[in-house]
Amino acid sequence: MTVLRSLLFVPGNNSRFIGKAKSLKSDILCFDLEDSVPQNQKQTAREFIHNELQETSKYQQQIYVRINSPKSDYLNDDLLVITKCKINGIVIPKVSTVEELKMIENKLSNLEIRNKFNHIKIIPSIESAQGVINSYDIASCSNHVYALIFGIFDLLHDLGIRYNKTLAATNFARAKIPIDAKAAGIFAIDSIWQNLKDTNGLFNDCVVGRDLGYSGKSIIHPDQLKITHDVFKPNDDEIEWAHMVCNTYSKAIKHGIGSTKLKDNMIDEVHYKMAKSLLENK
Q1: Contact (Cβ atoms closer than 8 angstroms) between residue 213 and residue 147
Q2: Homologous superfamily of the 6-231 domain (CATH)
Q3: Mean pLDDT in order along the chain per 10 residues (282 residues)
Q4: Whole-model pTM above 0.90?
Q5: Residue 192 contacts by C-beta under 8 Å, 6 or more apart in sequence?
Q6: CA geometry: angle at 84 spanning 80 and 89, to 5°?
Q7: Whether the Cβ atoms of residue 68 and residue 108 lie closer than 8 Å to each other
Q8: CA distances (Å), 83 to each of 12, 18, 24, 64, 155, in order?
Q9: Could you give the CA distance from residue 252 to residue 156 in angstroms, rounded to a whole number?
């Protein structure tokens, strides 16, 4: 079963970070050509990534590259380079419409044919008010789309709102994206936690994301991996609950009972399904 607890961004212009990346235990490793790379370093980053990703057998993670946005001047050069690399997919930042995604998908398909590449997955990042409104259409418009990312900071910029840790203005957007992704049959990956030293804040933010239906989180430093993975997997209490539900419900079904009592709660088939799913993901 595919697990997407973490997507770790690695600046594409930092050869030291790129060299260390293979030892990291993220579920997706995403080399970045966008926000972490200054304009005068874009070509250097492409060259570093191209050289590193000619052979990916040394990586245990899924390998992605975040290209520049659909409206940028760097898009075509990014696609020309990354389609010559051995990668699983691309992250497309700042996707606001299906038309933007389809434009990139068409360019990608032509390059796949030219370079004899097979079906690169796409993860659009939703980072604008228009993108939030269109997120289900974006998620469901192509079988190349593998997941959605929620990008909080560009959304705040689009809305003209300052960031704070208890921000309520993005609650609707943050809650909508995993619902739209699930309705389209794909994963949803939550936004980054900016403060590298605030581990309690990271933990609490991961819990909120998990409870909203995200499968995992975007992260920007290896030190955030352990907390993220610990939250986005069942804990001991949840596993114990799941075993009790499965055992209790299975016994009830043998006696022709569709709903039964477990401690002080009633359980039925939906709780059994939830418990089985949780045990499959532990």
Answers
A1: no
A2: Phosphoenolpyruvate-binding domains (3.20.20.60)
A3: 87 90 92 95 95 86 95 94 91 98 92 74 97 98 96 92 72 96 97 95 96 96 96 76 75 79 80 72 64
A4: no
A5: 9, 152, 153, 217, 218, 219, 220
A6: 90
A7: no
A8: 16, 18, 24, 11, 29
A9: 50
